[in-house]
Amino acid sequence: MLKELFAISDYPSLDTERPFQSKFVLLLKIYGIAFLLNILSAPVSVVCDYLVTNVFHLKSIRTQYWQSMLKFFKMYGYARAIVYICIIAPVVEECIFRLPLTLKKQHIALALGFAMLLASRLIPGLQQQGTVIKLLVWAVLITSGYLIFNRFLPEIKPPGKRLQTRVTVISIIVFGLMHISNYMPLHWDILFIYPFYVLPQLFMGWFLTYIRFKNGFVWGIALHMLINSVSMLLYMTFKP
């Protein structure tokens, strides 16, 4: 398993035709590795936060994260926030980052359609609307985005192994770095230090990509939901 995990260039050729039990056991193993690396990376963020507060004399980035989470829960309420983090976010993020790794036109168009959800934040007053209105707007954005991009995107030739590997690695990195937004507002003068805070998400992107190719796309969503749900449980247990 570890040999396969490190051979990113071979991901597209992995065999997904295996029994359910085999896939489920692999998912649990990968989650165990992700959980362990999450624990091992915690001291890194502690050291970084010490540098931020005692060397750069800025506000603790970890404190900003906790405050950001509290603000998020206050805005949406605990029930809706949990649904968003544990269900909606995994589906959306997997569709954006892992679905298009086949480099098929339809998958890329659908990924871009889901990426249109990010633009929904720019719609005035939408955040204050009820869940039903938001879901309707999201459905319109996804559908229209998919139809537009599927219409105008050119047909894509089967990529070479080198291009496929580059796209896969870029997807992993962008997915991880995207989570820097959880630490808003950012200290722009020490932007270089933020990647150390999102090491767990960088590892997570790597493992989700492996599961996506090894088990199938839906299994990537399942692993993502598991990771977020356990993280949410730990947050609710140990929140300050």
From TrEMBL:
UniProt keyword annotation of Amino-acid biosynthesis present: no
Record-annotated CAAX prenyl protease 2/Lysostaphin resistance protein A-like domain positions: 81-229
Transmembrane regions listed in the UniProt entry: 30-52, 73-92, 107-123, 135-153, 165-184, 191-211, 217-238
Annotated GO biological processes are: CAAX-box protein maturation; proteolysis
Keywords from the named record: Hydrolase, Membrane, Metalloprotease, Protease, Transmembrane, Transmembrane helix
InterPro entries, A to Z: Rce1/LyrA-like_dom (IPR003675)
GO MF terms on file? endopeptidase activity; metallopeptidase activity
- This protein's name: CPBP family intramembrane metalloprotease
The species is Mucilaginibacter terrigena
